[in-house]
Write a structure and sequence with these properties.
single chain, 168 residues, Lipocalin, 2 domains, 6 strands, 25% helix, 29% strand
């Protein structure tokens, strides 16, 4: 039963057990309503992220996109951590420029003495001109003997800037 207030008390009114039970019942009812409201997670007041200074989904997505598009290595990942080779001491020579795809089909890395260290060649374009294969050869210190060859299948995902790859 909803709480019924008594607002016409007079100085000499006698407070009975009925009045105290009614008052205590009102306190319990009010506390239950407060508890019920406090436990709600459906945003009963319609508060927006902007009203409380929280990030909006659009704002979060913009920050994620900006971070994903960074090319300055924001986490300071080293070549050693990802198993890549350091290119600093090498000169890169590129050939077979594909203007449609905006890339070189052949890239050679040469040591400071000019000897070949690594050569990568893209091949097998699909009907959209996207290259499906990449062969990477690594050479010994003479630059003449192949010591390692990797044949990679390039997988083009429209949601990713660079192709994914797997060894074949």
């Amino acid at each position: 039963m909803p709480y019924q207030s008594k607002t016409n008390w007079k100085y000499d009114d006698v407070v009975t057990e009925h009045d105290l039970n009614r008052i205590e019942g009102g306190i319990v009812e009010a506390q239950e309503k407060v508890n019920s409201h406090a436990s709600r997670t459906d945003n009963p007041h319609g508060v927006t992220p902007e009203q409380i200074g929280a990030e909006t989904p659009t704002g979060v997505q913009a920050k994620v996109n900006a971070h994903a598009n960074r090319t300055d290595n924001p986490h300071g990942v080293t070549c050693e951590q990802i198993g890549a080779i350091r290119v600093d001491p090498f000169d890169a020579f590129r050939d077979d420029y594909d203007a449609i795809q905006g890339l070189f089909c052949t890239v050679e890395l040469r040591r400071a003495d000019g000897k070949l260290y690594q050569k990568a060649v893209q091949s097998n374009p699909d009907t959209n001109g996207k290259y499906q294969r990449l062969m990477v050869k690594e050479y010994d210190e003479t630059g003449e003997v192949v010591i390692k060859t990797k044949n990679l299948e390039l997988i083009h995902d429209p949601n990713v800037k660079f192709p994914l790859w797997r060894e074949v």
